[in-house]
Amino acid sequence: MAQLRPSVLYVLLTIAGILTGVGLIYGLFYDTERFEGNRYENSYVEFNDSLLTATQQQAIAFLKSENVEWAHFRFIEAIKNDDVRQVQAFIDLGMPLNSDSILLEIALSESTHKKSMLGLLDERYQLNLNGLFTLPNIVSEFDPQLADISRPYIQQKKEAFRQATNEYDIKLVSWEQALANKKQAMLKGCDNDACRRGRLNDVRRLFASSKPSKPQEDYIVKERVKVSLFSVFAWQKDQALMRFMREQGAEVIPNKLFLTDGTLIYFKVDALGNNVIIERGQ
Q1: How far apart (Å, rounded) are the C-alpha atoms in residues 78 and 85?
Q2: Running DSSP on this structure, what letter comes out for residue 227?
Q3: What is the DSSP string of 12-63?
Q4: How many whole angstroms separate alpha carbon 97 and alpha carbon 103?
Q5: Taking the C-alpha atoms of 189, 195, 200 and 205 in order, what is their torsion angle to the nearest 10 degrees?
Q6: Cβ contact 93:71 at 8 Å
Q7: What is the pLDDT of residues 107-128, one digit of tens each?
Q8: d(Cα 95, Cα 107) in Å, to the nearest integer?
Q9: What does pTM read for this prediction?
Q10: For residues 278 and 266, is the Cβ–Cβ distance under 8 A?
Q11: Were 238 and a residue from 95, 157, 160, 233 both cysteine, which residue would form a disulfide, CB within 3.0 to 4.6 Å?
Q12: What distance in Å separates the CA atoms of residue 62 and residue 87, rounded to the nearest whole number?
């Protein structure tokens, strides 16, 4: 029987290893729904044995015709895309709404149908329109308003730092003068370098604890913000949506502005978009 040369055997083993690896990867990641095109059909299996109304049957047919899976993230996508027909179909089929942040996303969107979308969702899910929502840091639309709210406090802190720095400078000059006087007094009577070094070290140790501490200026900027939908609409000067919020029982509630030094500012936004600071604390 002929024997394979080592180089040929090595090549064959390498090829076999590659094919085995490809097979393992294929087995791990093969998605029958993706390759066989039945992803959408399989997502609706839970409805197969259900007694559906005509409206629900139409909703399933519509979503399938749109190649939309029965999945919560697809429901959220439909809301973000302002696709009222898809949203209505998901609602007709009983899809729960498990995202509060989507309400803020609607408010911040460029959609011209915010009122109808919020009304549609509120009718089905009884939304908490009085809640506070974390404003994403990437949203800069309201930076001028937030700067107006934090500016008085930041200016107050800057003035306090300026005064503290002036006081520090005065105390430091006084301390340095007292240190120099003490050194001069302690050196009297010394007639050699060893005596002088020892007494100077004694003076430094004596004065070390009384040296004034230099004040440090806090870096103060916006850290995070929690706002109500009403405040967002007031800043946007959208009277129709503010009226809608009132009709749904929403109230003007305090918002929260957190600063990087630990300060928390409570503020309200009136119907004209004006900011009113209520309280500040840490």
Answers
A1: 9
A2: E
A3: HHHHHHHHHHHHHHHHHH--HHHHHS-HHHHHTGGGTTS---HHHHHHHHHH
A4: 11
A5: -110
A6: no
A7: 999 888 899 999 999 999 988 8
A8: 22
A9: 0.74
A10: yes
A11: 233
A12: 11
